[in-house]
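Continued from yesterday's entry.
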Amino acid sequence: MPQHAINSQNSTNAKPALSRLSLRILVYIILVSTIFAILSTLVQLRFDYQQDLSVIEETAIKIESSLAQPMAASLWNLDEQQLEIQVEGLLSLATVQSVQVRELIDGNGVPILLRGDINAPQQTKKSFELIYQGQPVGELIIGSSLHSVIERIKSKAWISLLTQIIQTLCLSIAILLIIYFSLIRHLNRIVEHTRSLDLDKSAPGLKLQRPAFSSRKDELDSLVETLDQMHQRIHSELRANQATNIALQAERDFVKTVIDSSNAVIITLDKKFKIKDVNPSGVLLTGFTQDEMRGQNWISLFVDHEQRNIIEPLLASGKNLQDIELNLTDLQGRQQTLLWSFALVYEHERVKSIVAFGHEITSIRSSQQQVLELNEQLEAKVSQRTQRLEERNRLLASTLEELKDTQESLIAAEKQASFNQLFQIFSRELNLPIASALSDAQDLRLRCEKISEQVTITDAAETLDQQQQQHLHLESQLERLAHVTSNFKQLVVDDEQRIAYAFSINDNIQQLLHSMHDRLENQHVSCHIKCDPQLEIHSYPAAFSQIFSNLISNSLVHGFDQWSGERRIDIQISTYRSHLRVIYQDSGKGIEPTMAATLFSASPSSAQASANGLGCHIIASLVRQLLGGEISIDLSEGPGSRIKIVLPLEENKKNLI
């Protein structure tokens, strides 16, 4: 076909191509503008929707601040009329669609008043707790309608979207016109000039049609200059091709020399795997000459029979292959191992030939086989030792289980022995008051029988006086019996002591002293407390009352018994970091050093029970087990008894949780 015909055809095809470019630009502009319009509309609608929700939320906050307390008072006072008025007032608000009032009964919310459409769709609900004088009495649930908000958003969405589409179309047309006059028409001229160029001849430079007032160069002018420079460069490159071909021939000769002198086997194959050329290393490996190998199938010469079915599909796949290990048996019958790689040579995007590279690795594989055998022997030894270790581990596990069973048995026996000791102490404590009370009762019965037989005024007076003394003694023994029984019951922390909440420890002790006022006054004992009135802790107030009650009782019974000195009890309570420190001190007889070491032991002995009862054991149990603290006796602070108690406040919070 003549050159001018080709140029004419290319020029004719250029216009539809540029027309398609204009159409694509228009489509891209419209698409991007439409997406931007939709996104901006969605952002605006999202903003408007959030504003409407903020109005509903602000209304709910105002309702909570203004009506929650009055409605709680109406609910507490059972004023249904006032509650109706308040609910109707809420329904009159524009954002309120439904109102529900629930009364708190036994911890459950029971609906007592329902107004509005509670189950309506597109409704958001907000609940408020109704609290009267610090106590929750019910719950207020307000439903706000979103229907009007959504409808307004929908109408606004259509208007905004239509406006954006119209703006997008007008803007796209204007941009396309600008692009055509400033770019596309110049591109058409550049294309026509480029297709008319003859690479064998020189041509005048291209000049773009520019307005007279436009003198500054732009990117299109730079493109035209580049095309002219490229045309000139092609002429010089064509002249340089001949010199390049000569250099390439020299390179071919050099490469052939390198291939012939290489220790690796290098073979050129055609698409049917027939040998086209082979270097001298292949001749030395097989024993055949180069002429004998040319035209032969590479697979039949270099691959043993059992591996041919494996390598042939791989070569036929049309891919470069790396590190394919194959066995070869030479003319002397020696088997050798080669590591092959195959590179495809393309010409016009089609496979022209295959270059095979083979490296002899027979000695390497022999060494690897020896290493594998050594590894297998080592693995066998490791397996044997592993089995021995597993057997020893199973034996150790069995021994550990036996030790655990023995430990559990010892713990159970120790618990049973401790319980038996406590029961003996409890029996010892009960025997004396019961026997004394029984003796007094029998003596009273005999005296009553004697009085019924013969009574004089003098005998009657003496008998009545003796009966009064015996009654007092009997009452004392029965009180002691009740006290011992109560103490034994408190050896296990009951449910009341496990109720924990925030309380003032100063108020707790003051209430205890008020309940023990008569006992303190009868024995002329003064009690002084040094504690911050504002100190509040989260713990078990019943346990604290029991601890201080037993401490004071021990002082009254043992510390001030037949004591003629000052009768005073001091209680100091303070906090240090995360601990509560309690110092209890009386001015009585004090505690003997031999008894102080075991007074607050885990299980009291019979001697301790006879001297102090079970009160000290109860104190130690509450302090250590329930409150997680420590209790000790300080014998270095002069006369009287001084007891220190340290309680971790953080531990009490954990127990509370």
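--- second protein ---
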Amino acid sequence: MRSRRTTILLLLVVGSYFLLRWWSAPTPTPHDAANRWIGQITSGEVDDAYADSASQLRESTTKEEFHTFLEETGLGAVSSITWSRQEGAPEGTKAFVGDATRKDGSAVAMLVSLVDERGQWRVASVQPVENAGGKVTAGSAKGGDADGPAPVSVNSLVIATLSELNLALRQRDFGAFQQSLAESARKGITEEKLSESFQPLIEKGRFLDGIESATPTYREPPRFDKGLLRTAGKIELRDTQVAFELNYAQEGGEWKLVGLKTDVRPSQRLVPDDATIRELARRSLLAFAKAVKASDFTEFHQSLAPSFQGRVTPDSLRASVRGSVAQIGDLSAMKTSDLDFSREPLINDEGELIASGSSLQGNRRLAFHLAYVLEDKTWMLNGIRVNVYPVVGDGYGRPVPNGMELKKLVRTSLASLGEALTKRDFAPFLESLDPRLRDQLTLERLKEGFRHLGGPKVDLERKAKEAWIIFDAEPEITTSGILVLKGTLRGQPPISFDLKYVLTGELWRLAGIGVREGQPATKKR
């Protein structure tokens, strides 16, 4: 594999000629940085190793504490190391486990974590570990108990804690779990507080069944910090994903929980494959269109999830259909390939499968938002929202925003221009424009083009926020999908505007602007 290389451009001036030459220098890899750092330790250059460490290590540990840590753990007596594996680590970090040999011939495994600081890999932490995965021998740069810190299997500790939590959730009794905490934590974390905090999980049936046989994945290597063992990661169960942050302290020769944070969500592994979701959505929309056409939602109601059936009746469903949705028409020819999902289907915090998007059907576009729940291994409809729009030039039916939204667009655009004039800084205004317009303009062109609107006489920023807006022409969306707004800001002097917007995602962005002093409009809307 080719090593990464840093490229440097050298500019040499010879007479009146510029010579360009490329020079390549190797950038140390994480392994290189770890080897160099260990090499400083083995050669006795401990102060240099400390100085070359990541800022987070130096900020949390003094040089004297660093020396003490190496001496107490025996890591300072390492003579050589062979890297055995790379651990999972978040982006911008690396973690390696190596088999080290001390100068007296004894062996020790080391976990070395590195971070990328401004393009340079630096050691952020080092810990002795046992060869078994997830086992850490506690050694803190802040020092440990008088008799030395106790060995701990982090995986076993995390699983034991979450198993005890699951038992408390199942029994709806947090007495035993609260008593298992460290004495210092029990004073602030009462049984009542635990019960209140985890009540939402109980109500939603979010239990941690199967946790006993699960394996944690750590967001970062477990570490010892200021006398605490800190762990953070996640565990994937069959139906749920458990994110955790668990902190432990030594008490009576054992590691006891002193702080916990958990986030239990439905697992995204429950999301069906693309073909299944498309067929689900197609069937739901076909059934809905059939009910609309027949003006009878009895059969459609029977197909809903029990929870949805309890919230609506066939009559209330029929009454909710109005406006353009009543013209949804026949969708029997709809294919799964016609569905255009606006985002990846996902499982939300309520455990619902969400599918949102649209489908072009002739001269109209059908927008949909569908929610499903799993009932006896079958996804059933638990919510539906449908809109039908006429198609404009871009192929997406876009309703003209309502009056308040239109005036807000005008005020925001003109106030932004007014602020640029007042501060004589058009950079923020230029950045707010649609990219296609932005690419055609420069700051100089903007300053010159709107120079006539500057000065206290106009005060466009204030007028845009306060003046009465009159539209000279009916706001419209052209066949090219452009929203056109023409009108006047009343007052002295009146300001006429001609604004054009295009839809980018869910945001209307300014794609054309004309503003001048002018007479009040005679046509009102």
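The radius of gyration is 33 Å. The CA atoms of residues 372 and 381 lie 4 Å apart. Will compare against the first tomorrow.
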